[in-house]
Structures are given as C-alpha cells and as structure tokens.
Amino acid sequence: MIKNRVDIISLGCSKNLVDSEQVMAQFANRGFDVFHDSSDVKGQYVVINTCGFIGDAKEESIEMILSMAQAKKRRKIGKLIVMGCLSERYREELKTEIPEVDAFYGKFDWVNLANDLFQDSVSTENQRVITTPSHYAYIKIAEGCNRTCSYCAIPIITGKYKSRTIESIVEDVKMLVANGVKEFQLIAQDLTFYGYDLYKTNKLAELVQTLANIPGVEWLRLHYAYPNQFPYELLEVMRNNSNVCAYMDVALQHISNNILTLMRRNVTKDETYAFVRRLREEVPGIHLRTTLLVGHPGETDADFEELMQFVRDMRFERMGAFAYSDEEGTYSNLNYQDDVPFETKQERVDRLMELQAQISEEINAQKVGQILKVIIDREEEDFYVGRTEFDSPDVDGEVLIVKNKNLEIGNFYQVRITDSDMYDLYGEVL
pTM, whole model, 2 decimals? Predict the structure, then answer.
C-alpha cells in the first residue's frame, strides 16, 4: 500500500467514466496522487465504480470487488470503497456478502464520498480529472430514463430522467476547452428526452447549438438517442454546424412488430424504417451507429429473419448485436419466459455480426480516395492512429496513417484514404 495514493477502477459505460473522473477530482483537490485503471493497484484508498446493467457486467463487478477484498486482506491496499450501479441496486446484499468493503455508495450519493471520508466540505462541482486522451472528453447531459423497455434494468437502477441545466453543461464544456479538450461526446441514457423534466419541452437542439457556438469546440458527437419522440429540429442543427459530427448513435433493438411490442418500445416497423430514412435524407452523409438485441422472449426465426433483412436494407455504418439477458426485476423477467435457447441467441448474434462485417467492409472501401478530416489519438510503432468525425472513440474503427511526417497528438489533419479493411481505414496526411 502506498500512502497518499488513490486507485479508481471504472467498469461499465462512459457515463460511469464521467462519475469516476469527478471522484478523482475529489481526491486530487486534497493532494492525493490519483491513478485510473492501473495494472498494479496499491492505493491507500481504492474506489471501484461498478456496472449492474446485465449479467456479464454484474459478474465482472463482483469479481473485481472480491479481488480487491483479497488485496486488502494482504494489506496491498488500504480502504476499499464501492460505488455505481451494482452498489445502487444491491447495496444491502453486498454489505452482507463482502464485509471487507469499507463503504458503499450508489449511483448518485458518491458526490459526498471524499467529504464523508475526510469530514470536510471541499467543493469540486463540475471538476474532473480527465482519463481519456487530453483532446477529447465525455459530457453527461442527464441521468436516468423514463422509458419502460421490457428488458432494461437501467430505470430500476437510476430512476427517472434528470437533465442537467444547459448552464451547467456549458460551464463544463468551457472549462474543458480551456484545458485543451477539442472533441466532446454528448452522452445520456436517452438524449432525446433531454430537457422535458426541467424545461417542460425538448431542449436537445438548443443545447447542441449552444455548445456548437462555444469557441474551441471542434467536434460534438451524439450518443444514445431513441427513435420514439425524436426531436427532428436537431437535424437542422447538425446540417448547419460543421462542428456537430454527422453521426448518431441510436439503439433500435429490433424491427419485427411482434418483438417491438413485446419489448415495449412504443415504435413500429414502418416508423423505424421512416425514422432511419429521414435521418439520412436530412443529414446527407450521416453515419449511424445502432445496437440490436436478439433472443428476446417470443423471438421466432421469422422475427429474426426480418431483423436480418432490416440490416441489409439500412446498411448501418456501425452496428453491435447483443443476446438477451434476463435481468431481475425487469418487465420481461416478471412477465415473460426466457424461451430462446442460449445457443440460438448466440447463433443469431453471430449471423448479424457476420452480415454487418460485410456491410462495414463495403462502406469503408467506398472511402478510398476521399480526403477526410482526422484527429490524431495516439502514436504507434508503424502508424499514427486517428479518427474521422464518423468514428467515436473505443467503439468505432480508426484511421491508420503512415509515418511520412511528424504529427501532433490531438491535432486535426487532412488525410487521403488510401486503403481500407473491415473496420479500419488507411491513409496519408496531405
């Protein structure tokens, strides 16, 4: 154990990462050396930010807590603190099962974590220690979700939708710009509901326009939209502002009316097709990322073949597929029988991803010869590695740039695309 050291371990999504960065600021402002996702954890304090979304994520979180509990017994670490979604949902059970943990915090009460530890009141509102490369950051604009999708435990964990004020988000972005951040990923469980709870009307378009007007904001990218009640005025903002990326992450989940009804998605097959086509018409060149869920209770072979045809028709630039996980307390868990065999679920995931790989390879090949604006994320032995406006960090493909001149990490360059493969592009700086 090293005194005056804090190790933060982040599990789960980028929304969790933002929370971890704010916790890191709480310790950094008190003079601690702060480490994030270190390969050798040995802090006086260790904070695990857990995920509780699906079975695999819960298992990963529990394994990490148990591993750190063992490290504490060996005196490799000091105090062990657990926060986040798993802790929010199963706090009492975890207290009983893993008594080695010194304190549990949920999804929201962690804002007082350091104040509780040190019995003081140092304010760190909106302050973060960025764990991403210094040129990009995630901006969480809301917490919670008001949707009632059958399979999803998020509303159980996080509660009702809670928007941040536009002023608070603007302050956050300006502070990060002053520290050198150029690219911002706007995230929420449901971007499309932003503002209803605070302002009684949708404010997403206004928020994005306001952020686009801030000097120094080079790229804004939108994650986790929803097709039902989508604020179409946002598309005009995307068209009219070159720093709002022509990129939308919207989880469509399925296309069969049978499954959409069972999922409680409040959208139909025809509406979904019309939605995707409208996005493409109103924002020419937009790249769409979606996720699809297979093996939901009641999904037949015919339902799945409909989904395959949907992917062929829409040719999504980015897509992920996941097998249904029967989560405790969800509508699906309480009202349906998990009746699709595991092997069938996995086979359907594999078929979807094989189809998507083919589509992705074809779409990437069409970019050969184009000149694209690329931000440089890192340097490797043979290439500089960057991304276009169509690529979100960690989840999308990259641009590998031959080392024929020195490039600066975090800067933008015009890059001619010279080759492509299934997921990545290759290019040279002009």
Answer: 0.91
